[in-house]
Predict the 3D structure of the following.
Amino acid sequence: MNWPDLHKVKYLITPVLAYLVIAIPNVQPYHASFGLLACLLAFAVNYWALKVYDQKLGKVTDAFHVISLFSLSLLLMYEGTQLIQMLWGKANIWYDAAAVSMLLFVMVVVYALRNRIKWPLKDHQQAYFYWALPIMMGIQWLMLLVLNMSKPGESIGIPYLPVLNVIDLVGMATLYLSHRMQKPENENMTFFIPDQRIRYALFAVMGFMLLNAAMLRCFHFWYGINYNWHDLLSSFMVQTGFSILWASTAVTLMVLAARKKWRPVWLLGLGLMIVVVAKLFLVDMSASGSIERIVAFLTVGVLLSLVGYFSPLPPEIKKEQENKTGAETENTTEEGA
């Protein structure tokens, strides 16, 4: 027997573990028949092998670390969902949000320990923070969008409260973690998009979609509108809500941009306000004479007035610098005279 050849098993441990994590739920839950203990031992052996052969795996080292983290995340997501199902069943907001909550938990732990654990996090930053976390965050956002679009999240004996429910809380926490991950000091976590402005724009779009979904859940729980796209979009009340929410968001952006002198953000708010005005005439006018139409027009009119008073268009950066330079030159000339 050629004993050195046995070391080649190092190339099989991680792929086999990933296969088992995917295949076992088709046969039985992980926790059945001491399954969790077996899973813990399997992951312990996997990470032991990654540590022992840390410098000997070559080009597949980063890939094996990424696969290991994905496998662990999938196991925790599945077990979290199974636990909620055993405790409260499937028809509730906790079951709907179990998978995204567990994935968020894994990302928060990995991100929080990025500078505290030398191996594997600091020694393999490329694997965890350039590949694994950005890919997991993309999956998280996709799951959140599907969840918000398809599930209102039925509560268990608790009245629905906007923001103070698990779907909205997980969404806000995900948005905050996304913001933290793409800060300049985290050079590796670029989400495969080098331009930071584009990343900010994507996060803003995601946040805006979560805000709209929270409003739709309010209409579903408080006014009994079925949570499907046909019923929601056919409701004049929902259309009025969209107009007011979008106009309020636009005004908030424009006021904030005027104070911070963020010209692109101000223009973004202006664009959203133009969409609101167009919607008022193209969509809301169909509710002629209804109280919803009156409320929408009055509210948007008041918000437009506030925009004109509190948030003028910020100057361009170059012009502002030229004005400052000119003012400094004039002051220097007067002092010399």
Remarks:
- The mean pLDDT is 85.
- Residues 61-88 form the longest helix (28 residues).
- The CA atoms of residues 240 and 295 lie 8 Å apart.
- The chain has 14 helices and no strands.
